[in-house]
Design brief:
The protein has 14 helices and 13 strands. The protein is an alpha+beta fold. It has 2 domains: 247 residues, Amidase signature (AS) domain (Amidase signature (AS) enzymes), CATH 3.90.1300; 176 residues, Amidase signature (AS) domain (Amidase signature (AS) enzymes), CATH 3.90.1300.10. The strands form 3 sheets. The chain has an 8-stranded mixed β-sheet with strand order 6-8-7-12-13-11-9-10, with helices on both faces. The longest helix has 20 residues.
């Protein structure tokens, strides 16, 4: 009997690899189901803008032959995924989510490092997934693609900027996916879609080309174990990224249970700026923290050391990146991306002195964030203070564009690993994320801790059935 979409969705990458090894499933069969799922589900969620069915099927045939010979290329050989629009995929037009590039998209001459590692490991690339304009929104809003919708509630956003990848994961189209994160673009959609997502230490996953010293690529999945499996692949070395860290062999192999007893958690209920924490989010996060305490974790509340002035400076600092990118385009092309252009144009009057002052305030916030871990092993806080908002909006009504990033953006500045795990659902059935932040370079411990905390939280969930 042929595999059904629901069976495929519920297996996950780890189970697929076990089935390949036993000969119970083949990459050709699985890829066919993934393509059928994409066909059925994408009209509802708008997560995929480019498909390479023929290329995927050919790659699956090659993978099947390798498995027949018991010679898989890597720990994800034959597993389907999508590539985010913001990552170079050789020969495939790249829009970075914005209609400002509709007439003249970027045509990458090579793969980004993480995409190259996926290919080299035998991962099946189904196509490319959507993202918001220039990666600067916490929503699936895109002037190029239209809104990407959340599989848990199609009226809600999937989050941004890794919007298409997160929606495709939650809908079951793919079991693993690489996101990118400059202020929260892995963790916010992971929270909104009930996923596991890791922003690694800066440099842990080679990134090229890179226009910002805070942007990273990292793994997303429906489970912490699958997230760790993907991390094994994409953390492979690449000399093109001069900032990449030495290869960490400890990332190889399955994650191990971490010991929570005696581990010191600093609990940050709010960060001192941004959105107020929704009451249901607060209850679910506090309940998750209580479960960690039951396992022996030591938890201490932390008063937030940050203020709105620092938050505004951080947003202004990043605004210059988008303004520079858009300023190189013709005015009539920029006009096609009205929201991001209007947001970026606020940087037009800044002097070099103003921009440096913004940078200094980002460093002050960085220092404060680092100090919070001086007396703690891990920070814990809500990933986002709210659940997913309306799909047609770029940010919650009445709030600034960076407001939903308030709990995530600090930890890009500090270059620390930070991850989001689902810690439950609201009464309306929307996922809530728990964020864990660890010391710089502790990426292996982050994966071990993710698997442990996921087990402790034991969130019961039945994935959306959209097919």
């Amino acid at each position: 009997m042929a595999m059904t979409f629901r069976e495929y969705r519920d297996l996950g990458a780890t189970a697929l690899m076990e089935a390949y090894g036993k000969g119970d499933l083949s990459p050709v069969e699985v890829t066919s189901v993934a393509i059928e799922a994409m066909e059925a589900v994408n009209p509802k969620i708008n997560a995929v803008f480019f498909r390479d069915d023929a290329g995927a099927r050919n790659a699956a045939l090659r993978s099947e032959e390798r498995w027949r010979k018991k010679q898989p290329l890597g720990p994800l050989d034959g597993v389907p995924t999508l590539v985010k629009d913001g990552l170079f995929m050789s020969g495939v037009p790249m829009y970075r989510g914005t209609a400002a590039l509709a007439a003249n998209p970027i045509l990458p001459p090579f793969d980004a490092p993480c995409v190259a590692r996926l290919r080299e490991s035998g991962v099946i690339l189904l196509g490319k997934s959507t993202m918001c304009d220039l990666g600067m929104m916490a929503a699936g809003y895109s002037s190029m693609f239209g809104p990407t919708r959340n599989p848990w509630d199609l009226d809600k956003t999937s989050g941004g900027s890794s919007s298409g990848t997160s929606a495709a994961l939650a809908a079951g189209v793919i079991p693993i996916g690489v996101g990118t994160d400059i202020v929260g673009s892995i963790r916010v959609p992971a929270s909104f879609c009930g996923l596991a997502g890791l922003k690694p230490s800066y440099g842990r996953v080679p990134y090229y080309p890179n226009s910002c010293p805070a942007a990273v690529a990292g793994p997303m999945a429906r489970s912490a174990a699958d997230m760790a499996l993907l991390m094994q692949v994409i953390a492979g070395p690449d000399t093109r990224d001069f900032a990449s860290l030495p290869f960490d062999r400890s990332l190889q192999g399955a994650p191990q249970e971490a010991t929570l007893r005696g581990l010191r958690f600093g609990f940050l209920k709010h960060v001192g700026f941004g959105l107020a924490t929704n009451a249901e989010v607060a209850v679910l996060v506090e309940g998750a923290v209580a479960k960690l305490q039951e396992e022996g974790a030591v938890v201490e509340d932390i008063d937030p050391p940050f203020n709105q002035q620092e938050a505004d400076a951080i947003e202004d600092f990043y605004r210059h990146r988008s303004y520079h990118e858009l300023k190189t385009l013709p005015v009539d092309e920029r006009a096609k991306a009205e929201l991001i252009d209007a947001w970026a144009r606020k940087a037009a009057g800044d002097s070099g002195n103003d921009h440096h002052a913004q940078f200094l305030l980002t460093q002050l916030a960085r220092d404060k964030a680092m100090q919070m871990l001086a007396d703690h092993d891990v920070l814990v806080l809500p990933t986002v203070p709210i659940t997913a908002f309306d799909a047609e909006l770029s940010t919650p009504e009445g709030h600034g564009q960076f407001a939903p990033f308030c709990n995530t953006l600090l930890f890009n500045l500090t270059e620390q690993p930070a991850l989001s795990l689902n810690c439950g659902f609201t009464l309306e059935g929307m996922p809530v994320g728990l964020q864990l932040v660890l010391p710089r370079f502790a990426d292996r411990f982050a994966l071990d801790l993710a698997v442990t905390v996921e087990r402790v939280l034991a969130v019961c969930r039945k994935w959306p059935n959209l097919a």
